[in-house]
Amino acid sequence: MTLDKHKLDGIDQITKKTLPVEQFEKLLTDAGYQRLGSAPAKGKRIKIWWRHDKYRRVESIYSPDETIAITAYHVEQS
Question: Which domain of life does this protein belong to (predicted)?
Fold first, then answer.
């Protein structure tokens, strides 16, 4: 539960440990990010990747029911 531990390009610092997915995704889409894909993650969570034309790719982790954004951070682009 570390949304507040990472700074995402183009988005004001998130100060809460988690956010409802709707609120988190609005922050990303308002900044111009687009959902790229998803995959299962550790602990039955869901991993979501986000792309942006200007900023680094973001990987986010959602709760198993995809209602809570738990963390998000930049990943190296391949």
Answer: Bacteria
Q: How far apart are CA 11 and CA 6, in angstroms?
A: 11
The C-alpha angle with vertex 38 and arms to 34 and 40, in degrees rounded to 5, equals: 155
pLDDT in tens, 10-51: 999 999 999 999 999 999 999 999 999 999 999 999 999 999
Gyration radius of the chain's alpha carbons:
11
The CA distance from 15 to 64, in Å, is 22
d(CA 58, CA 35): 9
